Amino acid sequence: MTAEGPFAEGPLDAEPLAGRDERPRRAVGPEPIDPDLPAPPPVPPPTVLAVVAVGGSLGALARYGAALRWPTPPGAFPWTTLVVNVLGCLLIGCLLVVLTEVPAPHPLLRPFLATGVLGGFTTLSTHAVDVETLLRDGRVAAGLGALGGTLVLALLAVTLGAWGARRLVRPLLARWGARAGGGGGGAR
Amino acid sequence: MSGWLLVALGGAVGAPLRYAVDRGLRRWHEGPFPWGTLLVNLAGSLVLGVLTGATLAGAAGEGLGLLLGTGFCGALTTYSTFSHETLRLAETGRWPAAFGNVLASVGGGLGAAYAGHALGLLWWA
């Protein structure tokens, strides 16, 4: 993540992306002491995988529940998938800012919530097959509308989520830090 | 088996596989472009396309659709991480990479779904 260096004070956060930071390794155990030992295998720590699996299950179940509650009739505009994806984007924008701003969050929170729950909740495959089916059935306007509409709303949602969280979380943390330590900006 | 259980099982495999692919790819190719997310999104769209074709041809039932489609493919692919990574690319000034990611993910996902659907129909119809 050295390429991120110059952007450490960037507008979103200096964190690596969902679930790919080095923190899980620290959470699982110390670095090997013997330098002759081979490097750890390219398999993620089992704890992180388990946490992502549980989160992914919960996210997929929430999406399934939404599809049962608001079913899309054949040939209709896929509103449920669109809303699920846009909502997930709004939440991940918020979440990743909050996890960056809050001092020392639990190292498994990010893999669980971002990679697991929200990654499992949102879906590109169902969206792609929804659009493909509409286009195949000759419903070109609805298909292109779902494709472009989801993209625009999702990118707006993640931007809005991150912006809103920064506006809300930073002042809250600053107030909390001032009250707790009196050191002035102790939280950040 | 209950539909909820099938979806949960599929999700419990799809999401960690996405994480493992992403981490594995990052060991090979360190850089700002989210190759891992792109790869799982394309692969998941292809598999779901094949499954859709198989379902239409009568070769796959509702249970397989819930396990492999709603659960596994749904959790393997992600729109939230894709959006966030695109925003990150844009915010760090990597506009060509951001546009490329959008085109490859959304256009490529649609193409993969189309190809999968055609393959499924070809194979099972």
Automatic annotation (TrEMBL), chain B:
Which GO terms of the molecular function aspect are on file? fluoride channel activity; metal ion binding
Principal place of residence: membrane
Subcellular localization: Cell membrane
One GO biological process from the UniProt record? Answer: cellular detoxification of fluoride
Q: How is its activity regulated?
A: Na(+) is not transported, but it plays an essential structural role and its presence is essential for fluoride channel function.
Q: What does this protein do?
A: Fluoride-specific ion channel. Important for reducing fluoride concentration in the cell, thus reducing its toxicity.
**What superkingdom heads the lineage?**
Bacteria
Membrane-spanning intervals of the chain: 38-57, 64-82, 102-124
Its source organism is Streptomyces triticirhizae
* PANTHER family, per the entry: FLUORIDE EXPORT PROTEIN 1-RELATED
Q: Report the gene name.
A: crcB
| Topology class, membrane | Multi-pass membrane protein
Report which reactions are catalysed by this protein.
fluoride(in) = fluoride(out)
InterPro entries per the UniProt record, alphabetical? FluC
- Keywords, A to Z? Cell membrane, Ion channel, Ion transport, Membrane, Metal-binding, Sodium, Transmembrane, Transmembrane helix, Transport
- Report one GO cellular component: plasma membrane
Q: Which family does it belong to?
A: Belongs to the fluoride channel Fluc/FEX (TC 1.A.43) family.
The protein's name is Fluoride-specific ion channel FluC
Q: Give the binding site residues for Na(+).
A: G74, T77
Tell me the HAMAP family matching this sequence: FluC
